[in-house]
């Protein structure tokens, strides 16, 4: 993984205003540098000014370049999608079989890393003449008290049709009894993908600010650039957060 999501930050009420929140943030930054993580992401409510100030003090920057969408799986609970034979689920057993397709999508893809993180990761591979890849990671939302999916890698080859096919196929693997939300971020200037996302019932919210912290790793690894001519959603979801100085009801799953 190259990015982290800070999905929960909470300090017990009896221990607040002692610098514990700041210490936790510092430890996250230290661990990210040691593990060559390039950035840490989080979300906070618009009215949570104390938390926003704290994050800015820790060099977090507000993200104004992406729009955050959420799909409530209740909206698709009664929809049966037709099977798409051009899209397969990658597993540890078959991932090497499609090595050439994956490297065509992105030469920098680390197959060993993908295999190591498949326990809570869903990989959908489009295998026709215009290949694409969707990676969704499962995590837990404290507010919903249920698992959600974060789409954190989405390469659809600049094709709105391919994007629609991959996202529609994702619905087939959602069980609304367990997965409550799907989250994705889309660059503000990617009008085609925004249209696709909105047509599939993903919604935005103006209640949350997104922040990120650029991280300089202790040992900067050599990174291969992505293949030219392909566009990705760069979809790593940002989290929710609790203001350690306010009541616990500030906690919210981010977009």
**Total of helices:** 6
Structural class: alpha+beta
Largest sheet: 7 strands, mixed
With strands numbered from the N-terminus, the spatial order across the biggest sheet is: 5-6-7-8-9-4-10
Give the termini separation. Answer: 20 Å
Q: Roughly what percent helix?
A: 10-25%
Weakly predicted, low-confidence segments: 234-255
Share in β-strands: 25-35%
Order of helices and strands: EHEHEEEHHEEEHEHEE
Average pLDDT across residues? 80
**Overall outline:** globular
Number of strands: 11
Radius of gyration: 19 Å
Describe the structure.
The chain is of the alpha+beta class and 255 residues long. 23% of the residues lie in helices and 25% in strands. It has six helices and eleven strands. Strands 5-6-7-8-9-4-10 form a seven-stranded mixed sheet, with helices on one face. A four-stranded mixed sheet has the order 1-2-11-3, with helices on one face. A hairpin with a 5-residue loop joins strand 6 (121-126) and strand 7. Helix 5 (160-172) packs parallel to helix 6 (191-199).
């Amino acid at each position: 993984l190259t990015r982290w999501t800070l999905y929960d930050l909470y300090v017990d009420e009896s221990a607040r205003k002692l610098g514990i929140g700041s210490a936790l943030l510092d430890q996250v930054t230290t661990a990210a540098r040691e593990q060559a993580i390039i950035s840490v992401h989080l979300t906070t409510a618009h009215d949570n000014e104390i938390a926003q100030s704290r994050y800015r003090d820790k060099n977090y920057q507000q993200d104004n370049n992406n729009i955050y969408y959420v799909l409530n799986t209740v909206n698709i609970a009664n929809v049966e999608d037709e099977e798409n034979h051009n899209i397969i689920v990658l597993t540890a057993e078959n991932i090497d079989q499609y090595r050439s397709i994956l490297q065509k999508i992105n030469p920098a893809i680390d197959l060993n890393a993908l295999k190591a993180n498949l326990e809570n990761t869903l990989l959908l591979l489009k295998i026709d003449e215009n290949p694409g890849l969707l990676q969704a990671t499962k995590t837990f939302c404290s507010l919903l008290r249920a698992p959600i999916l974060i789409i954190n890698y989405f390469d659809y080859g600049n094709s709105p049709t391919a994007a629609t096919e991959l996202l529609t196929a994702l619905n087939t693997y959602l069980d609304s009894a367990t997965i409550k939300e799907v989250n994705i971020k889309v660059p503000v200037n990617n009008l085609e993908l925004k249209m696709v996302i909105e047509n599939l019932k993903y919604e935005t919210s103006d209640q949350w600010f997104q922040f990120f912290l650029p991280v300089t790793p202790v040992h900067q690894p050599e990174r291969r650039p992505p293949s030219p001519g392909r566009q990705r959603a760069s979809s790593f979801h940002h989290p929710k957060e609790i203001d350690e100085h306010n009541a616990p009801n500030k906690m919210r799953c981010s977009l």
